[in-house]
């Protein structure tokens, strides 16, 4: 069975549900929902396709909870594909692939407020299986900023005028890059600049003087995106369900998987203004979707009928890394935070692309990468392979040998000029299912070093099961003698996804206090397909609260 068909099977190890005994510890409410995963006719760009959706909705339902609530979601799979749903909570128990039938996910939300999202983590199903997940403060508590008049999820997506599963399967067959998307979307609509789309363009109404909290999510499969609203400033107040020190900007850049909460005040002439998003493309000479999606911020008092065309915002150039750098370095926690300082696991991971030589038994049609190769990706020269028949966590808990090894290298096997002119002999990674073992409570620092192999680009690196502090980033090769002076150990931002600069590096820190097997991967799904991932195996600590619970009795088996 082809690897992509089995992609979803392995994610038991990566998503943990809170145990039922913890549900009684919260003083919040229990929120119950049902997700039915099914094929639904969806018309975009003049054509109707059967797309996998939740409850026939695209995007899927917005889940709204409060800090301290419990969430139960019964997922019923009626689609022809296996599916796993990934929830962005920092939780601690199990999840598995649904082939058919149903399964109820149970969580308690503790200590997170702001905007997250949920999505399919199975092949490229998340192209249409996704939705917003909003966490408000506990009852009786308030936002750390003036309460807005309105709150609106703004979910940025990517649309193919073809079945996304077929797109990635064809790329896997040929070894080449997949076809680029045909449109971007805002709340699943492409907007006025695309064919057959104007009548369904997303409209956000607002009264003059009102403040709207826009919860912006980049759910695009393979593209970092710029976002702006014509003539309006955006005050950034949160990212990845954590509050930050507010700052004002005219443009956002969201790596795939990232969320950004912004306040927008209706303080302009009462007309219509475009919200717009388009690609930030850091990789040079690589094809990408250069179209622009739009929605409309519409003042309620603006003229109806023959209203003038909405005003378009000025968006940065596709390759405007200077704007991205200035934006990403504006993030600070609201106050001094407890950053891990006495580090006992200091790791250095190279991240980037590579090439696999064409296997002798492959036809030329299966090796359509550069110079007759197959495209690959890796961390520390290991291209991650998901097991085919059993999950990582299941193998770990049951002591099943031969599924994975724990020899993922903590530093690059070969040191080289990572962002310079790299020798062709270093282009081919090895493949393996290698994990890195961490003792419970380890204070971990990871340097994420981009490489210039094939095409340097901005990589959104996401870690399951944890938030982490981003203490520094930069360009070129990380130099500990020079660059440690740049570390922010006072008020760095706390995130779950870090955008590692093209031909550069970022440094993150976290405490390994959530036992289990946790995937770290690039959130550009094409790079996961090629192997740009690894996993941490965090050992149990002492006692029940520091140990991995037993699997739920109703957990679907691989």
UniProtKB/TrEMBL annotation:
InterPro entries: Cu-oxidase-like_N (IPR011707), Cu-oxidase_2nd (IPR001117), Cu-oxidase_C (IPR011706), Cu-oxidase_fam (IPR045087), Cu_oxidase_CS (IPR033138), Cu_oxidase_Cu_BS (IPR002355), Cupredoxin (IPR008972), CuRO_2_LCC (IPR034285). Keywords: Apoplast, Copper, Glycoprotein, Lignin degradation, Metal-binding, Oxidoreductase, Repeat, Secreted, Signal. It is found in: Secreted, Extracellular space, Apoplast. GO terms for cellular component: apoplast. Residues 37-138, 152-301, 408-540 form the Plastocyanin-like domain. Pfam families: Cu-oxidase, Cu-oxidase_2, Cu-oxidase_3. Lignin degradation and detoxification of lignin-derived products. Belongs to the multicopper oxidase family. This is Laccase. The lineage of its organism: Eukaryota, Viridiplantae, Streptophyta, Embryophyta, Tracheophyta.
């Amino acid at each position: 069975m082809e690897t992509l068909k089995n992609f979803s099977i392995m994610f038991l190890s990566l998503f943990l549900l809170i145990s039922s005994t913890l549900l009684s510890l919260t003083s919040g409410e229990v929120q119950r929902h049902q997700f039915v995963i099914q094929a639904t006719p969806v018309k975009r760009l003049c054509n109707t396709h059967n797309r996998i959706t939740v409850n026939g909705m695209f995007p899927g339902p917005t889940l709204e909870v409060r800090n301290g609530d419990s969430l139960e979601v019964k997922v019923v799979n009626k689609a022809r594909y296996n599916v796993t749903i990934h929830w962005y909570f920092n939780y601690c128990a199990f999840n598995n692939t649904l082939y058919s039938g149903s399964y109820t996910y149970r969580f308690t939300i503790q200590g997170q407020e702001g905007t997250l999202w949920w999505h399919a983590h199975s092949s490229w199903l998340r192209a249409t299986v996704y939705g917003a997940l909003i966490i408000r403060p506990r009852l009786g508590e308030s936002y750390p900023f003036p309460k807005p008049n309105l709150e609106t999820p703004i979910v940025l997506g990517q649309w193919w005028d073809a079945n996304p599963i077929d797109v990635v399967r064809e790329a896997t067959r040929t070894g080449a890059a997949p076809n680029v998307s045909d449109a971007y979307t805002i709340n699943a609509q492409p907007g006025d600049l695309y064919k057959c789309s104007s009548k369904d363009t997303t409209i956000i109404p607002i009264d003059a003087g009102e403040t709207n909290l826009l919860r912006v999510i980049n759910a695009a499969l393979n593209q970092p995106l710029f976002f702006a609203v014509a003539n309006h400033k955006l005050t950034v107040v949160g990212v990845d369900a954590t509050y930050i020190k507010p700052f004002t900007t005219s443009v956002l850049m969201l790596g795939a998987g990232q969320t950004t909460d912004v306040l927008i005040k209706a303080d302009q002439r009462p007309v219509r203004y475009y919200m717009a998003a388009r690609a930030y493309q850091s990789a040079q000479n690589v094809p990408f979707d250069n179209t622009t999606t739009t929605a409309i911020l519409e003042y309620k008092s603006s003229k109806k009928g023959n209203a003038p065309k909405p005003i378009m915002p000025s968006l940065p150039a596709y390759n405007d890394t200077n704007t991205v750098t200035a934006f990403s370095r504006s993030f600070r926690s609201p106050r001094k935070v407890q950053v891990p300082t006495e580090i006992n696991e200091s790791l250095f991971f190279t991240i980037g692309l590579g090439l696999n030589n064409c296997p002798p038994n492959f036809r030329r049609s299966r090796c359509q990468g550069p110079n007759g190769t197959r495209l690959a990706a890796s961390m520390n020269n290991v291209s991650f392979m998901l097991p085919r028949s059993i999950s990582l966590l299941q193998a770990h808990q049951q002591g099943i040998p031969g599924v994975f090894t724990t020899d993922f290298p903590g530093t690059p096997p070969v040191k080289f000029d990572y962002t310079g002119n790299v020798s062709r002999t270093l282009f081919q990674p090895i493949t393996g299912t290698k994990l890195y073992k961490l003792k419970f409570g380890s204070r971990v620092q990871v340097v994420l070093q981009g490489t210039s192999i094939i095409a340097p680009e901005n990589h959104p690196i996401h870690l399951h099961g944890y938030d982490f502090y981003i203490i520094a980033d930069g360009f070129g090769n990380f130099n500990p003698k020079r660059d440690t002076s740049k570390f922010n150990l006072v008020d760095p931002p706390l995130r779950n996804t870090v955008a590692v600069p093209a031909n550069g590096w970022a440094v993150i820190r976290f405490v390994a206090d959530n036992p289990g097997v946790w995937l770290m991967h690039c959130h550009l799904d094409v790079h996961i397909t090629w192997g740009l991932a690894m996993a941490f195996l965090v050992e149990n600590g002492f006692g029940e609260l520091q140990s991995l619970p037993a699997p739920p009795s109703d957990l679907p088996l691989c």
